[in-house]
Fold this sequence. Notes:
Layout: E1 9-13, H1 20-30, E2 33-37, H2 41-49, H3 60-71, E3 76-78, H4 86-96, E4 100-103, H5 110-113, H6 117-141, E5 146-152, E6 169-175, E7 181-187, H7 195-214, E8 217-223, E9 225-227, H8 253-262, E10 267-270, E11 276-281, H9 282-294, E12 304-308, E13 311-314, H10 315-326, E14 330-333, H11 350-354, H12 362-375
Parallel strand pairs: 1-2, 1-4, 2-3, 4-5, 5-8, 8-12, 9-11, 10-14
Antiparallel strand pairs: 6-7, 11-13
Sulfoquinovose-uridine-C1,5'-diphosphate is lined by residues 108-110, 152-154, 224-225, 252-253, 256, 268-270, 275, 277-278, 315, 335, 337, 339, 388.
Amino acid sequence: MILANEKKKIMVLGGDGFCGWPTSLHLSNLGHDVFIVDNLSRRNIDNELEAESLTPIQPMGTRLQAWKEVSGKDIRFYNFNVARDYDHLLKVIVEEQPDTIVHFAEQRSAPYSMKSPNHKRYTVDNNLNATHNVLAAIVQSGLDIHLVHLGTMGVYGYGTAGMSIPEGYLQIEVPTDTGERISKKILYPADPGSVYHMTKTQDQLFFLFYNKNDAVRITDLHQGIVWGTNTKETMADERLINRFDYDGDYGTVLNRFLMQAAVHYPLTVHGTGGQTRAFIHIQDTVRCLQLAIENPPEAGDKVQIFNQMTETHRVRDLAKLVSDMTGAEVAYLPNPRKEADENELHVKNDLFLSKGLKPTYLSEGLLMEVTQIAERYANRADLSKIPATSNWRSKPEA
Ligand code: NAD
Ligand code: USQ
């Protein structure tokens, strides 16, 4: 719990989603005054894809009523499109006067963003306009609001040539025309691997500009792949359960493997499985959001960037881990994406650790996830939705 003078009013954009819902509950539980904005586009995409969360997520009204019964706390909900309804967004900001805006409201699947020209255009339109509208509205409101945005480790690309990826900025030294050497800190060079990831690299430039021009206080969290389902708060009542995506577009690799093991489907490793990625448990995601909100940049500070991840793993090692634990078979499939077959990945995450993050590692949480979620809801699975059908190549390679 927080002290009365630490209580903040927090606007959560995208608060119905996989990260946004448990974050809203966590912040509300701490004693902050939380309200959610979401246009339920993610639920509509489920309708489009004819896929559903493995867990039985409840409509927003039921979720909020359950939270009121469990905690005695109110979370308010506004349903509108942040990317389209600028006037509505500005009006809510001016009336509510939030101290912090947490921005999760983007289309977050790389495969979905690569399905067709229309999916590419929707992702660019939605994500860039959502982020730009929030920044423009903060400036137009005249309020001193701290914006906390969910970015991705994918802005850096995943190849590091042996060095550790720093937290956002790279110290470089370049020669001048007169032969002197000068030092400079620049944004780490962007290297997106999908249209979705490309929108996150552009978000960074929006932040750089609005921070420089209008002194907006911004924290950008470069998050790795989130695994797990529930947090302390979402476990309090089954009506609060979080979403668990397993389909070929929205399911992320480790949660897919856990679900596949539970339904006896061979684990779908793309290519050699040599891709190394960064991971974080959903319980640590909500804790990181709390730490970012509690540690805002000062007026005049440049954009604060934290790497929000706790460990790195190679995809084939994850498959082996899940297979050893459950007896699941492993299938090596042609990779539908264009990505390096094998990569090393070293990432710095000192900033969150120094602020008190105590990571939940795979070794502690995996088995619980298999038995309490994947096996428990296996009867809701539609196995026809497991294959990844979105292809990065316009034509299959010869
Ligand atoms: P999600 O799709 O489950 O949630 C996003 C929410 O935002 C949805 O409820 C959706 O309806 C809403 N939304 C989207 N566009 C909107 C708009 N224009 N107006 C109003 N609401 C809108 O995604 P998530 O997994 O919770 O991810 C949240 C954020 O975290 C994303 O920005 C994503 O890029 C980032 N992130 C996610 C992961 C992960 O593994 N899930 C990892 C790294 C970063
Ligand atoms: N992969 C498999 N088998 C599968 C699914 C994925 O081998 O069944 C491989 C992919 O080819 C890729 C890796 O696993 O090499 C990760 O894929 P993913 O779908 O788990 O994650 P990704 O597409 O990178 O996107 C997810 C979130 C996104 C977030 C990103 C963080 O959907 O919102 O930004 O993780 S990061 O990867 O660090 O950029």
